[in-house]
User: Fold BlaI/MecI/CopY family transcriptional regulator from Natronospira elongata.
Amino acid sequence: MHVSKPPTRSELKILQYLWDHGPSTVRAVYEAIGASSGLSYTTILKQMQIMNDKGLVTRETSSRAHLYEAVTGRDETQQDMLDDFMTRVYQGSASRMVLQALGMSRPASEEELEEIENMVRELRQRR
Assistant:
């Protein structure tokens, strides 16, 4: 399922918790990420209710403690966010984005370059 608007930074933190731990209560999410970042239980609850309204998570209401679960997986969400970023910042050019990432911020390690070369090889073979 493609989400029209990428998750915010705080929504992404919650999604990462749900991807790592599976369906979870608001209390579990709060104890893992809310308390340490100074957010109240009600703030986490409201955020997760908004995420449910936006279609980022589902809420199972059959028991007293509602369970929230991410609608899409980590890989699909990352791909959607990357596509959105590439379109907005690099006018859809993957090569410009990759060149910028490899050349400007920090030099790629030998391992990273080897991994990139392997990916390019695989992409060519798929054609």
Summary: The radius of gyration is 18 Å. The first helix runs from residue 9 to 21.
